[in-house]
Each structure stands twice: as structure tokens, then as C-alpha cells.
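Support request, please re-run this one:
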Amino acid sequence: MNYADFTIRSKKEWDGYIEKTLMHEFFHTWYYHSLNTEGEPLLFVYEETDFFIAMPLIKRPIKNSLYYDLTSAYGYCGPISNIDLGKLPEITKSIFKSEFVNFMRQENAVCVFSRLHPFLNQCCIFQHDSYLKENGTTLYLDLSLSLEEQRSKYDKRVARQIRKLRKRAYIIKEGDSPEEIRKFTEMYHKNMDRVNASKAYYFDEKYFADILNVHESKNKLLLIYDGSELICGALLFLSNNIIRNHLSATSPKYLKESPSKLLVDEISIIGRRLGKKIFHLGGGVGGREDSLFKFKRLFTDLKIRDWIWCYINDTVVYKDLVLKSGAITNSESNYFPRYRQPPK
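Re-run finished. Output below.
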């Protein structure tokens, strides 16, 4: 079997492979990974005559050590290909994983974390791998259904609330100006304050502006106004078949009115208009069925398993890093890698 594997660090080569995939999202692009400030963007490529598998990653230095670890950029990443990953022969899966381990050794990487994409058959590559872990469920809307049929599946109370919100003189528009991005960022940060979010979720104004202004994407900022006052908004990612609410926020003054429910309904309309098949709502924080998950569950009963791949390439070094970090004292934690667990 003739094959090759290599690591790509340049934008042109990276996106050259991405553009040839059967399906990908903005999450997989070089540009999205370049926004991450934790380390160096890498694209590992395994290639045979007729197909390739590409794995986008961030290589991060581990503090006070000579080692690195690998992680996904925030969102749904994992391996992508120009063929359906579910059709790979077992021998190819085995060689890919073996070559990926060799790549990790060459990069001096102790472990890798990747949140897999629920609609790309990525689990097939890691099947029977003890490092593949279920991470709860993720929710979605089927946009091939009529809007009426979709709305009939909403929680009855939510459906009534949306009808009332539709009757108000709210303005729903696409935001594109620096001032609108600034206002959305401020509102988003207030939301993060309210829910005591991790610092990792505090994306700044430049982050939003960069995502919206990059020419490789068709991302949108959808905003809801009450007169001249911004009350709700969402950063939308669009791929070939999927629309998703990547990050959203509601003005603290309007939490009781819950315009975010109107926002969900409106995004589904936009998705249909743009020819998308799936509106991916996502799940709860860390795969939990928390208040965020329960909110999304009000709109749909369609769900799919969410998976993560947490592979340790050097167990001895990993355990030593955990011990030195002090995280080993919290044996109930599922945080990975454990040595990066934030202090409480």
C-alpha cells in the first residue's frame, strides 16, 4: 500500500486540502486555527493515491517542560477527508492511527484532545479505541422539514412566546459595522459574567471582527433590536449543509422577554433560505444536560451522540505532568489533559 504523511503549516497548502474535502466547516480552516493564541496551527495529512485524511490541530507548549500537547480549536473539528470516512477499510484506519502516533512523537507531543464533528462519521476512524469517549448528546433541527412541521415540534410554551415576539416591533438584521460588532461583544461579555464562564469563553472584539471579515467564510452576525437598542444576537457559521449558532448573547434587560427564542426560529428560516439541511444547536457545556441543553431541547427532539478523542501518547510523562500540576488530587475530574485543569 502506497501512502505518505506530512505536516502542513502554511495557509495555502492547508486550505488547498480543506477545499477538496467531501464536507468541512469554518472550524477546519487555517484561518480559524490561526485565531487561537495558545500555540501553533498544524494540519496532519495522511494520503493515499485516491484519498486523504487531514487532522487540524493546535500544538501547545506545556509550561515548565520540554513537551507539547495537541488540541482542537474551539468547536467541532476532528479529521476530514475527500471521501466518506465511514467507508475506510480497517487496514487504512490502523495505518492512519499508527502514522499519527509517529507524528506525535516527532512533534514531542504527550497527548491530543479532539472534539469530533457529529455529522462527519469521524468515530469510524477511532472505533474500538479506548480513548474515544462519549460526551453527551448534541441537538439539531432538520431543515428539510417544512417550517410549520418544525414549529409543531417546539415546546408549546415556547411556540406561544415566539408568536408573541413576532408581533412586537423588533428589528432583525445582519450586523456588519464595527460599531455593531463592538456592541455585540459587550453584550456577549455581560452574558459570560452572568453565568460565571471560564476565561476561555471571553472572546474579544477582534476575534469577532476577524471571523466576520475574513473572505474565506460566509459567516454572519444576526442581531435583534428593540428600536435602536441591541437586545440579542448570534454569530452564525455556515458550511455546505449546516448552519450553526456559534456564539450568542442576550441583553440582561431582556432576559425575561427571551428574544433568544425568536433568534433560534429566525436562524432556521435563514438556513432554509440558504439551502442548508441542518441547523446544529449543539449541546450543554462540557456535554452536560445543563440549563443550556434544556433550553435547546425546547426546540427539537433530534439528537446525536457527541464524541471526543483524548489520546495519551506518553503515559509516563503525562502522569508526571499531572502529579506536578497538583490536579491528581481531584480524582473525580474528567478534564483533559488533567494537568491543564484550571484551579477552582
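The first helix runs from residue 11 to 18. Residues 86 and 124 are 6 Å apart (CA to CA).
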